[in-house]
Amino acid sequence: MRATVASLLKGIERYNPENLVNLERYVDMQANENTYDLEANLAVLKLYQFNPNLYQAQVTAVILLKALTNLPHSDFILCKCMIEPSRLMEEPVAKVLGLAELLETANFNEFWISLMKDLDPLIEGIVGFEDSIRKCKYLEMGVSIGSIFNLTPISLMKDLDPLIEGIVGFEDSIRKFVCHVVASTYSTIRKDKLRQLLGNVTEAQASQWVSKYGWTEQLDGYVFIANQDEHIRTKNITEKISFDSVAAIMASGR
After folding, report:
1. Looking at residue 13, which CATH number applies to its domain?
2. What is the largest CA-CA distance in the chain?
3. Domain, as residue range, for 195
4. Which keywords fit this entry according to its UniProt record (predicted)?
C-alpha cells in the first residue's frame, strides 16, 4: 500500500479530497503494523485544513501518537502546527497533547499514570510506540534526574481506555525513549530501578533491553551503561577572518 500512497502524494493528487479515505486507511495500517510515514500523515492533516468538513479527530490523534514514536525528531511539532488551534482543545487530540507535554518535560511518572487512565486503547494499536519513546534521547538540561526517574511500577495493561486500543506496541516505544534517556544520563544504574523505568518489566525483559543496548549486567545488581567521560569530545574552533572581508565594514564606519 505504501507504493499506492506514494503515487497519491505526487503533484496535484496530493490535495485531492477523494484520496482521503485511502490515506486514512493507511494511517490505520501504520498503527496496526508498526510502520510510519510522516509525509503521508502530513498530507492527511493538510487535507483536513483544506476540507474542515472531512476532519476526523480519531485519525488526527493516531497521527500525533505515531509522531511521538519518532521522538526526539520534530515530527510531532510539524503535525501539531498543521492542526487548527480550535481542534487542539478537543478530545482525543487534547489528551495526546497532554501526553506529549509529559514526555517533553521528562515527567515519566505522570506519563505512565495518564497513559493508564486515558490513552491505552488508541496506543495499543500502534506497534512499537513504547519502544520508540524509550529509544528517544529527550532530556532537558537542569532537570533533576532523581525526580524524572522516581517512577511507581504501573501496569499499562490495566484499566485500558478505548482511545489507545488501536495502537499496537505503544509500551515498547516508551521503553526505547527511556533507554535513550538512561544512556545519556547514567554510567551505572540498579537493575531494579531500570525495570521500574521500563514500566515494571520482568527480570528477563529487563535483561533483553540491557542486551539490546549493549549494556552489561554486574554481579552487584547494577547495570553498567557507559563511561560518560568517554562521550565528551573537545573541539578546537579556529576563526578565519581575512582583512579583505572586514575592510568594507571598517571603511563604512569612517
Report:
1. 1.25.40.250
2. 75
3. 2-252
4. Cytoplasm, Initiation factor, Protein biosynthesis
| C-alpha cell at position 75 | 515530527
Backbone phi, then psi, for 72, in 5-degree steps?
A: -95, 20
Number of domains in the chain: 1
User: For helices 38-50 and 20-33, what crossing angle results, to 10°?
Assistant: 140
Alpha carbon 189 to its chain centroid, in Å, reads: 23
Cα 206 to Cα 66, 191, 203: the distances in Å are 24, 8, 5
Amino acid at residue number 238? T
CA distances from residue 234 to 142, 209, 229, 231 in whole angstroms, order as listed: 22, 31, 11, 10
Distance CA 15, CA 238 (A): 48
What local confidence, expressed as pLDDT, does residue 123 receive?
63
Helix (H) or strand (E) run with residue 11 in it: none
Read off the DSSP letter of residue 215.
-
Tell me 151's DSSP state: P
185 by DSSP, 3-state: which?
A: helix
- Asked if pLDDT for residue 119 goes beyond 70, the answer is no
Strands (E) in 154-207, as ranges, are 188-190
pLDDT at 10: 87
- What average pLDDT does the chain have? 79
